[in-house]
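Budget justification aside, the reviewers requested a transparent look at the raw inputs and outputs of the sequence design task funded under Objective 1. We therefore reproduce one unedited record. The lines immediately below are the structure tokens for a 175-residue chain.
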């Protein structure tokens, strides 16, 4: 034994240092962790930030779809053929400058299956609010997929032309 500890010292080991107490402490710690997990993850369908299932991680490599808006000059003819990003007509139109969330627009365009007059009018209202269109906007659905060689294939299909003279739907899209 150490010099500073003499045989005459009465050593009392506290109850909390015994084996049964350490097991109880570990059990309480594990229970507390499980309760926190249930409250933060299980009750929120797995969408608690540190454990979240973000699409960028869980769907890597899957094809994706977005919306793109281009402003068309008045004299330009509209082609309804699909094109690559470098070959798109018109000039880019920033939807954020109109107060439109790009994700909302992308969801609207990519998830609409039936382009009836109500949906087309809703898209026009999203871009121009209650005003009459003052410019020609061509809305594209852009789809991309990862190819076997690691390259990404991107194709933009024009869906709707919103213009001061009215709204045109791509003829290959079923209303």
């Amino acid at each position: 034994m150490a010099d500073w500890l003499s045989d005459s010292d009465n050593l009392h080991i506290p109850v909390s240092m015994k084996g049964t107490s350490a097991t109880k402490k570990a059990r309480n710690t594990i229970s507390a962790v499980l309760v926190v997990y249930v409250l933060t993850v299980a009750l929120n369908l797995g969408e608690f930030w540190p454990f979240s299932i973000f699409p960028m991680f869980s769907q890597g490599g899957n094809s994706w779809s977005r919306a793109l808006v281009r402003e068309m000059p008045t004299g330009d003819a509209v082609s309804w053929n699909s094109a690559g990003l470098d070959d798109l007509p018109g000039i880019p139109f920033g939807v954020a400058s109109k107060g439109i969330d790009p994700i909302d627009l992308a969801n609207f365009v990519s998830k609409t299956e039936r382009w009836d007059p109500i949906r087309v009018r809703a898209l026009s209202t999203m871009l121009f609010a209650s005003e009459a269109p003052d410019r020609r906007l061509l809305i594209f659905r852009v789809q991309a997929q990862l190819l076997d060689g690691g390259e990404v294939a991107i194709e933009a299909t024009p869906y709707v032309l919103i213009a001061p003279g009215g709204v045109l739907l791509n003829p290959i899209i079923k209303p």
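The chain has a mean pLDDT of 80. The CA atoms of residues 31 and 42 lie 15 Å apart. Computational costs for records of this kind are itemized in the attached budget.
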